[in-house]
Amino acid sequence: MKYIKVAVELSPKNEIASDLIIAQMGDLGFESFAESDNGFDAFIPSSLYNESLLQNIYSPIEGVQVAFKYEEIPDENWNKVWEENYFSPIIIGNEVIIRGPFHDKQEAIKYDILIEPKMSFGTGHHSTTSLMLQFILEQNLEGKTVLDMGCGTGVLGILCSKRQASSITGIDIDEWAYNNAVENITLNNVTNMTIMQGDASLLGQSTYDIILANINRNILLNDIQHYSQVLNTNGLLFLSGFYTEDLPIITEETKKHGFSFLSSKTDNNWVAAAYKKADV
Question: Would 187 be classed as within a structural domain?
Fold first, then answer.
């Protein structure tokens, strides 16, 4: 099958704008996305592509300009294209390997996670995903209930399942991410993870021992109050999707809702931070 690659260039590059534009393009039939130096590349089967589709794509962030360049990719093995150019296996902490179904399994690695590479931002290659995975590896999850907000591909919840969490709930507002997460938990034979499409308004009476939220600063600031309501006393909250300069304002908001700061990890100016809900 032939594909069209559309190079999406953002000026200046903006992670939130990228995510929102990807959601627009996913609704138009684009199947795969891979981060680039200036934005990301999007792929769609040639039979579905029409240049007029791009006329409906806009930057949702004021001050961020978006431009497109497209080219046809020759008819070849699509998995091979991804493997060689966009999606290579990644190993976290010498304990987790995240790979595509077309990559060889590495027996020496304890946790083997398969991800259909339809969105490279959820494969561990992005700093925020990698930092969150590192935090998960440090926790004793046996018998714990976990909530994964903005679950994307489901990779964080899948690792929690493999580390003996009792149940995991994943929530993502994007239909395309929801479908991909459902596909990936099936691919990994995960039977104790439920995926829902929506936002924090879905949070009801269920409570959790651990909450993971790898989203963006503004959504986190708005939703921390909701996380506090459904997190058990002495529960742990792990947040990422923001920059080092945003850590003070994120931490200040968590304090308003009964959390104490534990620690943080950084990579390429991205941060993941751990908090504990106070025993009141």
Answer: yes
